[in-house]
Design goal:
Layout (H helix, E strand, L loop, with lengths): L4 E3 L2 E3 L2 H15 L8 H14 L5 H10 L4 H10 L10 H21 L4 E6 L6 H13 L7 E8 L2 H9 L1 E2 L1 H4 L4 H7 E4 L2 E4 L1 H4 L2 E5 L5 H4 L5 E6 L8 H14 E9 L5 H4 L4 E5 L2 E5 L3
Parallel strand pairs: 3-4, 3-9, 4-8, 9-10
Antiparallel strand pairs: 1-2, 5-7, 6-7, 10-12, 11-12
Helix pairs in contact: 2-4, 5-6
The chain binds S-adenosylmethionine.
Length: about 290
């Protein structure tokens, strides 16, 4: 095993060791770091190795590789993941969901006397996406109190889940929230915005790694899965695996929403597509 080189007193991660880290992270999370991300990854590895008093990056690698306890690996992942998000992100997509897609599903459910709606926000980061969906459901349903509404919100990163549960946001996060919703669903606390209990009550947070088939297969009966802006960090093989697990988690007729640069059709042919409103949506056939 090649040790990291010592140049001018600074620890430098050799390409070979970098590749080993990348492989390990990819295998456990589906996230794939190209070589051009080396500086970004290296900084985080160095920080963690230093924090726990490792003598070298090589020792740190060996510790992660052979330890049975995943705590340190989870901490590294918390530092590595990119958690950028905000309320009502990709407004046109959410508007289409609220005004065109949801009403079709609601009509169908009413016809079948089914009063359950389950949504999974599958890489929820600090909670802005699932809370946005909670607001949309409460705004768009005629009598929300007559429905059993459930939003499962999950992420691999335990730090973001912790802060999602608190639900306190800076202006940057709520900048796209329509003013009347800001008034109705948030409480201003000094310079921050706290989501109200009526938004929180529909959302249940949990840690789920999307490449952990066992954890993912616990989430079933979904009418909608939102998995936005995370598959961009995966390669095609792990994207394919995740989409096929989602397929099992969806109800027949259930619909999946990805980020605008991610495409279901390119990755999986199991889903059918249909134009609803001004976008193509992908769904599990009935
Ligand atoms: C850029 S954020 C997207 C948040 C939100 N979906 C949005 O579109 O605004 C990507 C999130 O994916 C999470 N993530 C990355 N790999 C994951 C994995 N293997 N399983 C679950 N979540 C993962 C990260 O921790 C991060 O919070």
């Amino acid at each position: 095993m090649q040790p990291p080189e010592e140049i001018g007193g600074e620890m430098v991660l050799s390409d070979e060791l970098y590749d080993k880290f990348v492989k390990m992270v990819y295998k456990k999370t589906g996230i794939f770091y190209e070589h051009n991300k080396k500086y970004y990854v290296q900084k985080r590895i160095e920080k963690r190795a230093e924090m726990i008093g490792m003598g070298s990056i090589n020792d740190y690698y060996r510790m992660l590789k052979f330890s049975k306890d995943s705590t340190e690996f989870d901490r590294l992942i918390n530092d590595l993941t990119i958690n950028e998000t905000y309320f009502f992100r990709d407004y046109p997509q959410l508007r289409n969901f609220a005004e065109n897609v949801l009403p079709i599903v609601v009509r169908e459910k009413k016809k079948n006397n089914d009063r359950n709606i389950k949504i999974w926000s599958a890489a929820c980061s600090t909670g802005e996406e699932p809370y946005t969906l909670s607001i949309i459901l409460q705004e768009m349903l005629d009598e929300p109190e007559k429905w059993n509404l459930q939003i499962v919100a999950s992420d691999i990163n335990t730090d973001v889940i912790h802060s999602a549960k608190i639900g306190l946001y800076e202006y940057r996060s709520v900048r796209d929230v329509p003013p009347e919703y800001l008034e109705k669903y948030f409480t201003k606390k000094h310079e921050s915005y706290q989501v109200n209990p009526n938004v929180k009550k529909l959302v249940k947070f949990m840690k789920i790694n999307l490449v952990d088939l066992v954890a993912v297969s616990d989430i079933t009966g979904c009418d909608f899965i939102f998995c936005r802006n995370v598959l961009i960090y995966f390669d095609d093989e792990s994207r394919k695996a995740v989409l096929s697990d989602f397929y099992r988690g969806l109800n027949p007729g259930g619909i999946i929403f990805l980020g605008h640069s991610e495409s279901v059709g390119r990755i999986s042919s199991a889903y059918h597509m249909q134009r609803i409103g001004d976008t193509i949506v992908y769904f599990k056939p009935k």
